[in-house]
Amino acid sequence: MNNSQKIRTLSKVIVLGDSGVGKTSLMNHINFQFRYAYRKFSQQYKATIGADFVTKELQIADKLITLQIWDTAGQERFRSLGPAFYRGADCCVLVYDVNIHKTFDKLNNWHDEFLHQADLDGAETFPFVLIGNKVDLDGGNSRRVTENKAREWCASRGNIPYFETSAKEGYNVDEAFLCVAKISLDNE
Ligand code: GTP
Ligand code: MG
């Protein structure tokens, strides 16, 4: 079977979380063009203003899925545009920084804001994925949120899949988005 005969699916994914948790860095990691053009992770923080998306095509069994992944601004003053992009979403990825407890505490807000603003049909069953980013920092010594605590939160919100990542080291990022792709296919 050649590519044109395969079943193709497009899935819209929204990435949300506090400013500085690493949403754009995660996106840059999965954006191959970006990686080849710039070759490395940037330490420099440049706030996202508004929103932007990257696409990533994945093959799962005999299916091709294109993820259209939207990166939104975490900073309050740039948030106003965010919800305009939620409509038609198939999955929402929430991101926090395992080294900053406040970014974990805010997950309830992001989760609820998304559900309220996205204008969904089946809000109870809408798929989320949680990412705890920056596990590389200080060799794990500056960590403030345990994996157990994060998993408890996921369980309390209807068994949300959980991944711990480092956008800096490229650790577990592809795995997290493969899960997003599988969820999208399951919900076809
Ligand atoms: P907003 O656009 O303001 O919402 O922030 P953001 O969530 O997009 O954060 P961004 O990706 O810009 O990253 C913020 C800072 O954290 C940057 O200085 C990154 O270099 C750094 N950073 C991102 N991911 C990691 C990581 O996995 N490990 C480490 N050590 N630093 C990271
Ligand atoms: Mg950003």
Bound molecules: guanosine-5'-triphosphate, magnesium ion
In which range does the helix fraction lie?
25-40%
> How many β strands by DSSP?
6
| Regions with little confidence, pLDDT below 50 for 5+ residues | none
| Mean residue pLDDT | 90
Structural class comes to alpha/beta
Task: Give the oligomeric state of the chains in this entry, treating copies of one chain as homo and distinct chains as hetero.
Answer: single chain
Largest sheet features: 6 strands, mixed
Beta-strand content: 15-25%
Provide the gyration radius in Å. Answer: 16 Å
What gross morphology would you assign?
Answer: globular
Cα separation of the termini: 21 Å
The side-by-side strand order for the widest beta sheet comes to 2-3-1-4-5-6
Overall description:
There is one protein chain. The longest helix has 14 residues, at 173-186. This protein has helices at residues 23-30, 32-38, 101-105, 107-117, 147-156, 173-186; strands at residues 7-16, 51-60, 63-72, 91-97, 128-133, 162-164. Strand 5, helix 5 (147-156) and strand 6 form a beta-alpha-beta unit. The protein has a 6-stranded mixed β-sheet with strand order 2-3-1-4-5-6, sandwiched between helices. 33% of the residues are buried. It is globular, with a radius of gyration of 16 Å. By secondary structure, the chain is of the alpha/beta class. The chain is built from 6 helices and 6 strands. The model has no long low-confidence stretch (mean pLDDT 90). The structure holds guanosine-5'-triphosphate and magnesium ion.
